[in-house]
């Protein structure tokens, strides 16, 4: 194949009489197809996030990394399970779960929970843990249902979610005071309140645990609740700054688009052509992070252990997002004018829709879909080849998902293409447990 393209290049050279075009169009692609291919690479800088003033502050990111590995703010396990089954301890034990419990290893996914489709924290989360690598490219909807409209606000979900970390914002505030006070005070405008100290005479102002809905929280004064909310938002902003550094680029596919003809094989090139053509994948997996940042019903009937087949995805998420005080137009946002929430309302076509997943490094981050029910990339492509499942999913299937009539070879080709999307791993230093011991 190399020879054929070489002669193609020579032909082009001969015909135009000038040097070979820097962009590569080999015999697989028509100019129209190649134009589509070029919309998928290279991966740009992460989009800015004006709602987080500390988004690009390296000190905030360093604190965020420490907090990513910190277990101290997690609450009691609701479900005990032995380590061999992925458990984190016995029922009732506290301080056992960190973000890194579900986002670990080279690709920051969950290799621990067994069976491995859904993730076990303080209890089962009915979803498969996404990689947090390249999550900063989702703009702006974070999570499979887009329940958050910024990374920093997303980092505030799991610490208080009973089935994830089962902690509270007051615990977060105390852990920051006890272990990370100097760093926190150096980064953020308002220093931590000294009454967070257990030895302070006004310590009663900030109970050890509590979040909205709980008695301890209700009994606090409104100004003290505000103090804790600001601390909690800053905690999220530090984690958000860290998550923005978790970027993987320079996949063989990128080198190919750049002009390195041999960076991907022949089967992968055929798969790429199907991806942007006959198989229609690019209709949703668009742009350099391979997601249109939109929500679709792709016709997956949810099955598997610890899954909730009735989840409505985007519909429930929009409701939660509009009510979330930590959303981009709320009082803790550093830029309330982004318009992210304009035109957002709960509507029937959102029922059962999920965010298009990005596909970079997808060969490393199985199992697949929000339910983790498809084990291999071949399973995924076979699923799309059938036009999705016939029934058993919530909502109305997108008309972009229909039977594709791919041959076995074509299915293999698309898989081979997806395997060329694996970029360089994030630096080891960013995956080190730097939490305070
Ligand atoms: C018990 C396991 C668990 C823990 C602990 C956990 N996560 Fe996750 N994480 C998940 C799962 C499952 C998903 C997918 C959730 C969904 O579909 O809504 C996810 C998704 C995410 C995403 C979204 C990525 C994307 O594709 O949009 C981010 C960001 C994230 N987690 C960050 C964190 C941070 C920060 C913490 C700690 C404060 C944390 N996670 C703790 C399991 C966990
Ligand atoms: C109608 C829009 C749409 C089309 C067309 C589409 N996808 Fe998807 N894709 C999605 C959505 C939405 C998800 C996430 C579904 C979920 O989490 O349940 C997804 C998930 C995936 C995943 C799983 C990624 C992961 O990390 O779990 C892969 C792989 C994938 N698609 C590949 C493809 C391929 C290959 C094609 C073409 C044959 C294709 N998709 C066509 C919308 C689409």
Automatic annotation (TrEMBL):
Q: What is this protein called?
A: Cytochrome c domain-containing protein
Q: What is the lineage of its organism?
A: Bacteria, Pseudomonadati, Myxococcota, Polyangia, Polyangiales
Look up and give the organism this protein is from. Chondromyces crocatus
Please indicate if the UniProt record lists Heme as a keyword.
yes
What PANTHER family does its record include? BLL6722 PROTEIN (PTHR30600:SF10), CYTOCHROME C PEROXIDASE-RELATED (PTHR30600)
Show where the Cytochrome c domain sits: 266-422
One Pfam family assigned to this protein is CCP_MauG
UniProt GO molecular function: cytochrome-c peroxidase activity; electron transfer activity; heme binding; metal ion binding
Q: Which domain of life is it from?
A: Bacteria
Q: Which GO terms describe its cellular component?
A: cell envelope
The places in or outside the cell where this protein is found are:
Cell envelope
This protein's major location comes to: other
């Amino acid at each position: 194949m190399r020879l054929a393209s070489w002669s193609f290049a020579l032909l082009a050279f001969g015909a135009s009489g000038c040097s070979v075009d820097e962009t590569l169009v080999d015999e697989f692609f028509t100019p129209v197809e190649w134009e589509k291919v070029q919309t998928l690479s290279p991966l740009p800088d992460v989009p800015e996030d004006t709602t987080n003033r500390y988004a690009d502050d390296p000190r905030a990111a360093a604190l965020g990394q420490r907090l990513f590995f910190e277990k101290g703010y997690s609450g009691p396990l609701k479900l005990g399970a032995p380590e061999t089954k992925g458990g984190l301890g016995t029922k009732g034990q506290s301080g056992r779960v960190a973000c890194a419990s579900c986002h670990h290893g080279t690709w920051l996914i969950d290799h621990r929970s067994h069976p491995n489709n859904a993730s076990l924290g303080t209890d089962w989360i009915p979803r498969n843990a996404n990689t947090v690598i390249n999550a900063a490219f989702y703009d702006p909807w974070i999570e499979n249902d887009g329940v958050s409209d910024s990374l920093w606000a997303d980092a505030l979900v799991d610490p208080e979610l009973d089935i994830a970390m089962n902690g509270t914002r007051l615990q977060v505030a105390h852990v920051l005071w006890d272990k990370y006070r100097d760093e926190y005070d150096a980064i953020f405008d308002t220093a931590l309140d000294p009454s967070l100290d257990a030895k302070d005479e006004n310590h009663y102002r900030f109970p050890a645990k509590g979040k909205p809905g709980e008695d301890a929280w209700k009994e606090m004064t409104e100004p003290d609740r505000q103090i804790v909310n600001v601390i909690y938002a800053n905690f999220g902003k530090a984690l958000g700054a860290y998550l923005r550094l978790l970027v993987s680029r320079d996949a063989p596919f990128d080198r190919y688009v750049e002009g390195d003809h041999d960076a991907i094989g022949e089967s992968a090139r055929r798969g790429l052509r199907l991806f942007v053509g006959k198989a229609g994948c690019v209709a949703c997996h668009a742009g350099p992070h391979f997601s249109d940042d939109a929500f679709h019903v792709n016709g997956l009937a949810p099955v598997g252990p610890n899954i909730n087949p009735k989840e409505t995805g985007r519909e429930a998420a929009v409701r939660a997002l509009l009510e979330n005080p930590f959303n981009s137009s709320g009082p803790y946002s550093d830029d309330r004018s982004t318009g992210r929430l304009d035109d957002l309302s709960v509507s029937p076509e959102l029922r059962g829709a999920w965010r298009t997943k990005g596909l970079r490094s997808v060969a490393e981050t199985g199992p697949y879909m929000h339910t983790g029910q498809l084990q291999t990339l071949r399973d995924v492509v076979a699923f799309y080849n059938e036009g999705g499942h016939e029934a058993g999913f919530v909502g109305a299937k997108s008309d972009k998902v229909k039977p594709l009539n791919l041959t076995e070879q074509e299915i293999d080709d698309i898989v081979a293409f997806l395997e060329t999307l694996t970029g360089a791993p994030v630096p080891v230093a960013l995956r080190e447990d730097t939490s305070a011991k």
